[in-house]
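Memo to structure team: turn this sequence into structure tokens by end of day. - J.P.
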Amino acid sequence: MDSLTDSRRQLRIALIAIAVVIPTGVIGFILIEKMSFFDAIWTTIITISTIGYGDIYAETAMGRIFTIFLVIFGLGSFAYGLQA
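Reply from structure team:
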């Protein structure tokens, strides 16, 4: 397979993964932590980007477990896209 074609395929997969991870994070924080829509978006983005300001964070055990998986899958998606 052509390396350019393979890179495009990997990049497409990474973009799809990111497009799934971000809405999943937002919905998860809304349902689990009862955050507002804006707070859920903010928390998802700062979590995935590993900035983590600490102003808003998961307070419940279930929310923290969700955050762990969000970090793993979010960073994994970005790393997969960068290596393409």
